[in-house]
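Quick entry between incubations.
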Amino acid sequence: MSDRRQRWEATARNREPILAVLRQVLPPGGTVLEIAAGTGQHAAHFAPALAPRVWQPSEPDAALRESIEAWREAEPCPFLRPALALDVMDAPWPVETAQLDPPITAVVAINMIHIAPWDACRALMAGASRLLADGGVLFLYGPYKVSGGWRSDNDPAFDESLRRRNPAWGLRDLDDVAAEAASAGFTLARTVDMPAANLSVVFRKAARDD
Ligand SMILES: C[S@@+](CC[C@H](N)C(=O)[O-])C[C@H]1O[C@@H](n2cnc3c(N)ncnc32)[C@H](O)[C@@H]1O
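Done. Structure below.
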């Protein structure tokens, strides 16, 4: 039978540095909901490494969900759940209507918000805010501008190539992302410089005064 596992080079490259940060910033238990899980390479690598947390991948693209399932079959792990069909734009998310056990304590989205319209970033924040209790973690990873400035010589060309593919895509400014997160009830807890001028960005759900 043919191997349905898709393999992306960047995902294979960044999985160890991202895992090192996840180990530090994820809550010690609960379910981690992965948005935009892509091929499933991250899910297959992270789930056994981050046990006893349960890893719940999700992905809107059916062909990619097949790849996630193929990774799960090839590298079975009791802490890795089957992939859910989840598009952040479609509220409520399936995990809101059928509660997960254990409850979701973190939401992770890697290399997503620059390859989707800005509205998808807003929907990601809103959905994560609906799901997470106070202290819950929203973890983002990817390339960013900061205060209008590029962080690497390669980023302007990368940004242009994204916008050529879809004018609504492009590198996001961390200031805009943090402002959107704040309006969804998150505080920026930490940023971590990552290889190839990427950033890990850690938000924490804050208790509301009202
Ligand atoms: C560059 S891939 C990253 C995949 C994976 N996280 C990785 O790092 O290998 C971008 C992903 O964003 C997903 N995506 C785009 N728009 C989305 C949306 N509205 N809701 C959820 N996922 C979305 C795509 O399906 C794709 O899997």
